[in-house]
Amino acid sequence: MGRVRYPEAPRLDLVEHLHGHAVADPYRWLEDPADPRTASWTAAQDELTAGALAALPLRDRFAARLAELVHAGAVGVPVWRAGRAFSTRRDPGQEHAVLRVREPDGTERVLVDPMAVDPSGTTTLDAWSPSWEGDRLAYQLSTGGDEESRLFVLDVATGEQLDGPIDRCRYSPVAWLPGGEELFYVRRLAPEQVPAGEEQFHRRVWRHRVGADADGDVLVHGEGSDPATYFGARTSRDGRWLVVSASIGTAPRDDVWLADLAMSPEGGPPHLRELQVGVDAQTAAWVARDGRLWLMSDRGTPRWRLAVADPADPATWAPEAWRDVVPQQEDGVLTDVALVDGPDGGLQVLAVHSVDATDRLSVWAGDGSGRQAEVGALRAGSVSGVSAPPEGGGAAWVGFTDHSTPPSVLRWDAADPTSLTSWEQAPVAGDVPEVRVVETHATSADGTPVHLFVISRAGVPDRPRPTVLYGYGGFDVALTPGYSAQALAWVEAGGVWAVANLRGGSEHGEEWHRAGMRERKQNVFDDFAAAGEHLVAGGWTTHPQLAVMGGSNGGLLVGATLTQRPDLAAAVVCSAPLLDMVRYERFGLGRTWNDEYGTAEDPTELGWLLGYSPYHRVVEGTAYPAVLFTTFESDTRVDPLHARKLAAALQHATSSDAPVLLRRETSVGHGARAVSRTVGLAADQLAFLAAHTGLTG
């Protein structure tokens, strides 16, 4: 497209001296969206980007095909309560999934439809939880992408709203007490009760009576905690036990307390006893219908195990006293479990293990006597969850997807433990292209093998093709097979789509996660670069045909890749990214991530951050690849300032004719969005990558 004339962006002569480091920040002014210079610059970027994207030859074609592929349906795993099944479903043509209930007689009703609440499509359903009796439903909505969940309660039979909205409930669990009159939940303190700038923090656990003024709720836990603490809450079905958990930000460790509500003062906060406090490990705890305390933990077992203890006997709470039901496996990471009744009446565990980012199901005896069966009928793909009625039964429901199957639900039965049957299939709009998936391994800089899924169209001869390499590499998140309209549209047009399972994720347990965080973060970028080189060496693509793509922490990944290895790929899509790692903690939810990355307040950790911070690694006169930044103005997690600052820095520094563009959206945030907004964003991203990798369709 020739040399691009970019909007003027004054460079400040601003250098701060931090812990002995001279840190330049020439575009500090772009942090403030209200600054007239920022507003003018952003408007000029909008005009530049709109014109460039409109001229992309495959944009309309991708938009049309994505509209079909994205409109494939999606079905959620049912949550069972007293014979009722609650689940989500999105059909072709719907902008958002609806939450519905299936009655014991098989009839279905919609309980919450975000489009009925807000026809503009900017309201999303964030979370939901039915009462133990299935007669009441707590659900949370947010609007405009802000993820500021408002909590409501409705009567399942009549649809009548019984409570809400209760504000400040972002990331709140809901734990019901029997009878549906009371629940435990998490709510932030009111803005006037916290220091200025900390309104997104300071959560507390509360006990709430449905219909009562939330300002009169009973404080259960959280006073004196770190402001960045997140809390969890779970109750037992009989209402006797309450489990409260806490983690500071996204740290891979939590504290856990257990309360016997039968021994708690009437109307007052329960007495919480320490189950795990101050330990560098994660443990999920709950009391099941058999009365035992179940513990799913990576404490001393980085690939996780499932064990039991006695909730009434603290002597059994020490890890050495736990009794394993599903011990740690050498070849897989335990990710989920469901408790079911076996054919002989004994309790069984349906367990999900991830092996090289592919999920497998197995059946274990609830008494700890070992594995009883492998569920061989499961195709290579991902299990999004397993569920079973809390009151018992011999069946479980399994959420499943793979690279060409939209999220659907399978049914497992203890009477035929090696098989699965279809429970509910997601409808597909139009034909889904038949794909071939190859699993391979790259070798990282330190010799570590890095697993990849390489997806291409079935029946197409092998030769170098335009290829998108996608990655994330952080926060204990695994990239497992899943239906992706964007990947399918690219593959159908003749390209190759590759997904790399990098360190920093959970694909191989907590050790794999920690090998890609803090002072080891560079391992993630090395893994990604090795994956790109492997695709070239293997004949799938060439450097001029290779693109890299990532969002959020994955945006940091591709930002670091383009500044460290500008020669690796011809094109980059960097979405909702973290890029200024010196100041990231000052904005959005940044301070909750310093256990993952490190903090600039510490001299040693600042050195880690400066070692890879993309904004600080830009070198003038470098031929950078084509870059498309995509940001969302209502993003309350990752502030769009990161993309603004790096876009300005690259536009100033690059010696290449390849464009550096900034695409932004309003009234949408970091998370869920309407289908039509998804199509528009994905079409622009693919068309941009196609134009700069030679994909002609």
UniProtKB/TrEMBL annotation:
Family matches, as Gene3D superfamilies = alpha/beta hydrolase (3.40.50.1820), Prolyl oligopeptidase, N-terminal domain (2.130.10.120)
SUPFAM superfamilies from the UniProt entry: alpha/beta-Hydrolases, Peptidase/esterase 'gauge' domain
Record keywords, A-Z: Hydrolase, Protease, Serine protease
Task: Give the EC number(s) listed in the UniProt record.
Answer: 3.4.21.26
Q: Which GO terms describe its cellular component?
A: cytosol
GO MF? oligopeptidase activity; serine-type endopeptidase activity
The reaction(s) this protein catalyses? Hydrolysis of Pro-|-Xaa >> Ala-|-Xaa in oligopeptides
Q: Which domain of life is it from?
A: Bacteria
Q: Name one Pfam family in it.
A: Peptidase_S9
Tell me the ranges covered by the Peptidase S9 prolyl oligopeptidase catalytic domain, including all copies. 484-694
Q: Which InterPro entries match?
A: AB_hydrolase_fold (IPR029058), Pept_S9_AS (IPR002471), Pept_S9A_N (IPR023302), Peptidase_S9_cat (IPR001375), Peptidase_S9A (IPR002470), Prolyl_oligopep/macrocyclase (IPR051167)
Instruction: Name the enzyme's class.
Output: hydrolase
A GO biological-process term: proteolysis
Q: Where is the Peptidase S9A N-terminal domain?
A: 7-418
Q: Which family does it belong to?
A: Belongs to the peptidase S9A family.
The name this protein goes by in its record: prolyl oligopeptidase
